[in-house]
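Supplementary Note 3. Input sequence used for the single-chain structure prediction.
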Amino acid sequence: MPRKLYLSLALFFGILTAGMLYQYLGQLQKPHLVAMKPLVIAKVNLKAYEILIPAEFDIVQVPEQSYPTGGFTSIQPIIGQTLRIEIPLGTPILAPMLAKNWIALGSRAMAIPANLTNSVGYTLKQGDFVDIIAASNSATAIIAQDIPIIGQSNDASNKAQAYIIQVTPEQSLDITQAEQKGAVQLVLRGVGDIGAFPVEMKGVAGL
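The predicted structure, written as discrete structure tokens, is reproduced below.
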């Protein structure tokens, strides 16, 4: 009788072990899914204290478990800001890399009152780049090109009251003088439309 008991127990544990082994081997054959998360990286070598634009960045997918602290999943929060250090190509952009000073060295910030006409129907936002047209009764001219909007002030209904732009000291003088003599209009530039282009200035001396 004990012998039959031992045989029964041996058979039972043999079947149990085989089942566990089969289950383990089945799990090994299943692909392990790794959760991925988007990460913004530098597409080019970036210099410190220069205004950041969309064309300078790319997005790659990295495992969530190795995601760097302070990383960005979207390019939008970075646009219009500046870096405190130089960043080589392929480097992840992290929050501590962004300069606390929101104005690039050598630049100035000034506010342009917003209205339906000069704000492209109130569609302008931080990170956009604009050209600035000055118009008076006697002349019209583009007095600044490729100007970044680095902020805006809104009223209680969230409508823009003023746009904060970043300009050089010389541009700030030209814009202030133009505001005193007439109207200033902000003209939105397309994404990737970078740099100043030759334009025909009409009546500059009259502004």
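The chain has two domains: 36-97, 108-206. The beta strands are 36-42, 57-63, 108-113, 129-135, 140-154, 160-167, 183-188.
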